[in-house]
Design goal:
The chain has 436 residues and is an alpha/beta fold. The protein folds into 3 domains: 152 residues, GTP1/OBG domain (Spo0b-associated Gtp-binding Protein, Chain: A); 183 residues, Rossmann fold, CATH 3.40.50.300; 68 residues, GTP-binding protein OBG, C-terminal domain (GMP Synthetase, Chain A, domain 3, 2-Layer Sandwich), CATH 3.30.300.350. 19% of the residues lie in helices and 21% in strands. The longest helix is centred in the middle third of the chain and has 15 residues. Belongs to the TRAFAC class OBG-HflX-like GTPase superfamily. OBG GTPase family. One of its GO terms (molecular function) is GTP binding. Its EC number is 3.6.5.-. Its cofactor is Mg(2+).
């Protein structure tokens, strides 16, 4: 079984803020001691950090749940609870993070040491020292900590390579990679020897260097899932130049030009923008019989399908076995890389809007629905957060929550919907009677 993993679905949950405390000063020589309960500490964030030492998402196969610690509760003497440490999750370079529910891209992590907060911890609840007023100098009110952000994420690894090798199985991509780099891919005389992307660094005779990725072989119908499908084509999305490797000896009885058309069709079916990347045609296995004649025929067919004013792709005849033509190919690739800009990986519509961790002013504060058992159900982010942060162990806190509901217009809205005295109202799992 391959130990390469390039996609993973995980759940992250930031830490809850610590609860605020209700406490009072009780020193012997301090008459009428006032409130002294401190605030809770901040919950820990979940932070992704890029680690260039990681190569796959394999760690996320066995550990799919990441939960940061909650903040400490507030203490007496007005002392705040300690904030929780952030949870650091290390990911490989080239990891794209999406929201699993919406499919939107949250962030693209490509630089070593890059950090991104994927889930924000909740703030600590306020202690009763915060609620003292001239009218109520000794409040028995405190807040629970704010819940931490919780979300399901889809991780995709797209290797960081400047150049991608594509082509049918057994055309010599792995052999070429092993010759031009120090990579040691598996090489065999059968299809799909390569079942995971391989990466290697090339250094040309002129001293330039670039990264090359050898992708598992494509076949006709790959975009419909035939063979290995297009599951590894995500790794070519970051490349700027494509080396299209073709077996010019036609050793498996296929026509080299038909191979060329078939692979380009699969690239286009996967992502139209892949065809924007400049291609160099690598005519491999030129040391084999009939290769020269096949190359001549290939060039004629290629030219016949291009307009007079269109620029033909560069073609470099090589032999990975005898190392014929490799230096010229690598120099041309480096030259093409120098004048090829980075390609925009994601459209603006693919990206998640800039996160806002307060309340949406345009969103309704609450919604009212009716359950099958005739219970009125209150929901809504603002209302549910208010409910979660209310300390129901204290009568004053419950009264404060009731006033907040009234101020939001919940009473009037329930009355307008037909709620009567004694009807049950539910928020989450908490039920209370409606009093008209």
């Amino acid at each position: 079984m391959s130990m390469f993993l390039d996609t993973a679905k995980i759940q992250v949950k930031a830490g809850k803020g610590g609860d605020g405390m209700v406490a009072f000063r009780r020193e012997k020589y301090v008459p009428n001691g006032g409130p002294w309960g401190g605030d809770g500490g901040r919950g820990g964030d979940v932070i992704f950090v890029v680690d260039e030492g990681l190569r796959t998402l394999m760690d996320f196969r066995y550990n799919r749940h990441f939960k940061a610690q909650s903040g400490e509760k507030g203490m007496t003497k007005g002392m705040h609870g300690r904030g929780a440490e952030d949870l650091i999750v290390r990911v490989p370079q080239g990891t794209t993070v999406r929201d699993a529910e919406t499919g939107k891209v949250i962030t693209d992590l490509i630089e070593h040491g890059q950090r991104f907060v994927v889930a924000h911890g909740g703030r600590g609840g306020r202690g009763n020292i915060r609620f003292a007023t001239p009218k109520n100098p000794a409040p028995e009110i405190s807040e629970n900590g704010e819940p931490g952000q919780e979300r399901e994420l889809l991780l995709e690894l797209k290797v960081l390579a400047d150049v991608g090798l594509v082509g049918f199985p057994s055309v010599g991509k792995s052999t070429l990679l092993s010759v031009i780099t120090s990579a040691k891919p598996k090489i065999g005389a059968y299809h799909f020897t390569t079942i995971v992307p391989n990466l290697g660094m090339v250094r040309t005779q002129s001293g330039e260097s670039f990264a090359v990725a050898d992708l598992p072989g494509l076949i006709e119908g790959a975009s419909q899932g035939v063979g290995l499908g297009t599951q590894f084509l995500r790794h070519i999305e970051r490349t700027r130049v494509i080396l299209h490797v073709i077996d010019m000896s036609a050793s498996e009885g296929r026509d080299p030009y038909e191979d060329y058309l078939a692979i380009n069709k699969e690239l286009e079916s996967y992502n139209l923008r892949l065809m924007e990347r400049p291609q160099i045609i690598v005519a491999n296995k030129m040391d084999m019989p009939d290769s020269a004649e096949n190359l001549k025929e290939f060039k004629q067919k290629l030219a016949a399908n291009y307009d007079e004013f269109e620029e033909l792709p560069q073609i470099f005849p090589i032999s990975s076995l005898t190392k014929q033509g490799l230096a010229t190919l690598l120099d041309a690739t480096a030259e093409l890389l120098d004048k090829t800009p980075e390609f925009l990986l994601y459209e603006e519509s693919d990206m998640e809007d800039e996160a806002y961790y307060g309340f949406d002013e345009e969103a309704p504060a609450f919604e009212i629905s009716r359950d099958d058992d005739a219970t009125w159900v209150l929901s809504g982010d603002k209302l549910e957060k208010l409910f979660t942060m209310t300390n129901f162990d204290r009568d004053e806190s419950i009264m404060k929550f009731s006033r907040q509901l009234r101020g939001m217009g919940v009473d009037e809205a329930l009355r307008a919907r037909g709620a009567k005295d004694g009807d049950l109202v539910r928020i989450g799992k908490f039920e209370f009677e409606f009093v008209d």
